[in-house]
Design a protein that fits this description.
The chain is mainly α. 54% of the residues lie in helices and 6% in strands. The chain is built from 21 helices and five strands. A five-stranded mixed sheet has the order 2-1-3-4-5. The radius of gyration is 31 Å and the shape is extended.
Length: 435
């Protein structure tokens, strides 16, 4: 007797169905889904806590409404500001028009704004005002009256909060910590004491990563670098500083912090991490324009320039070792040049494409090769080390032969279009100073 499959002529193999189901989507499609899920999670992390962030135009409109009417009698003023307008006013406290203008938070009008906020108070304002405090931490230290008004408001409302909304409770439980002026130092010390990575500061507070962009955390990092000792500095804690700087996303703070680390001897045993991350985030120290930033104080400029020179010396020291250990084994010449390492301004390599690829495969110098290696148009085994020091240029070669020394003004070789090693030997054989 025929079975059901035979009657229906259904000969599909269930194992085939399983395979087909597992391969409905291609690997590329699955990867695309994974990327989309990750991006959605990242976007969720960036969303502000508390109320939904108003459109910038609404913030601008409420800012100008307040500035225009803030001199009016209080009872008239509160009639102008609805609950919706008051919510937007919280976001407008540190708003500044594009063409400049007064910031409410740093003006005498902040007291009036505070009264309006209290008149239409919502508990979610606790979160928004805490963000205002953290975003403007350093500036508020200069505006003592406004800082006291803001922290007193936050302190009283956090103490009075008796509901169960988790995001508000999360802020009220840590608020007392942020009422102190020296909070960043205390925060940094706690991270060190409990062996917490600074890049995970937001996790310590059980908050979203987006808060790491605030001014408060630039002060935390400054204190962290100052007070951490040699015993607490590990490869992980050093790497975490640079990960934090990426999240903080402030070029000025990056340059200042990287310079402070280089100028400190505390990080010497993790100097390879310091070198690589600093070059990646600030730039190669031979490119001086990358190490400049408008708005630095004179002391900060001197610190940055000192760090740039120190990093350049560290890199040059490493390049000399690589040249005389990898490209040519010559301990005598290596030790000679290392004696004068603090007098060397710049170093370049020149050689064949094979030499270039060889150096690119050396992990410790790979990221620096492109900006310092000049490829010759001809294939040859010899390569050159070009050393710039004060008013002179020294050219060393991997093969046995002369060291060529030029006055800088007489070294007219275009390193971007070298055909071969002879281009670096511009002396006539009748003009040698010595042979």
């Amino acid at each position: 007797m025929q079975n059901t499959r035979e009657i229906l002529k259904w000969y599909l193999n269930f194992s085939d169905m399983k395979y087909a189901a597992e391969h409905v989507f291609s690997r590329e499609t699955k990867n695309s889904f994974d990327i989309s899920i990750r991006l959605l999670k990242e976007l969720s992390e960036r969303l502000p806590d508390g109320n939904k962030l108003p459109e910038k135009k609404l913030i601008k409109d409420v800012y100008f409404l307040f500035q225009r009417e803030s001199h009016q009698e209080y009872f008239y003023l509160i009639s102008l500001f609805s609950k919706r307008d008051t919510r937007i006013l919280v976001y407008a406290l540190d708003y500044q028009p594009e063409n400049g203008g007064e910031i409410i938070l740093f003006s005498e009008k902040f007291g009036t704004a505070k009264k309006l906020i209290l008149n239409n108070w919502k508990d979610s304002f606790i979160i928004n005002l805490w963000h205002v405090l953290l975003k403007n931490w350093n500036n508020l230290l200069e505006f003592q009256t406004q800082r006291e008004q803001l922290t007193e408001l936050l302190d009283s409302k956090c103490n009075a909060y008796d509901k169960s909304r988790k995001d508000i409770l999360g802020v009220t439980r840590i608020m007392s910590f942020f009422l102190k002026k020296d909070s960043p130092k205390e925060f940094a010390q706690n991270l060190i004491n409990y062996k917490k990575l600074i890049s995970d500061s937001h996790l310590t507070l059980k908050q979203k990563e987006s808060i790491l962009t605030y001014e408060y955390f630039s002060s935390v990092l400054e204190q962290y670098i100052d007070i951490i000792n040699n015993e607490s500095i590990t490869r992980d804690s050093t790497s975490a500083i640079y990960l934090f700087l990426q999240k903080h996303n402030n070029k000025k703070i990056t340059i200042i912090s990287c310079s402070k680390i280089i100028n400190s001897n505390k990080f010497n045993h993790t100097i390879d991490i310091v070198k690589n991350h600093t070059v990646s985030m600030v730039g190669d120290p031979i490119k001086t324009h990358l190490w400049r930033y408008n708005g630095l104080s004179r002391i900060q400029e001197e610190s940055v320039e000192s760090a740039r020179k120190k990093l350049n010396i560290l890199l040059n020291q490493h390049f000399i070792k690589v040249f005389f250990e990898k490209l040519v084994q010559d301990e005598r010449r290596k030790n000679y040049w290392l004696k004068f390492i603090d007098k060397i301004d710049d170093i370049k390599f020149s050689g064949s494409s094979d030499n270039y690829r060889y150096l690119k495969n050396i992990e410790s110098v790979s990221i620096y090769v492109d900006s310092r290696f000049k490829i010759t148009s001809r294939t040859q085994s010899t390569s050159a080390l070009i050393i710039y020091s004060r008013n002179f240029v020294f050219v060393e070669f991997t093969d046995t032969g002369a060291l060529y020394i030029y006055k800088h003004k007489n070294f007219r070789v275009n390193l971007n279009s070298i055909s071969g090693m002879e281009d670096l030997k511009t002396w006539s054989k009748y003009d040698y100073a010595c042979k």
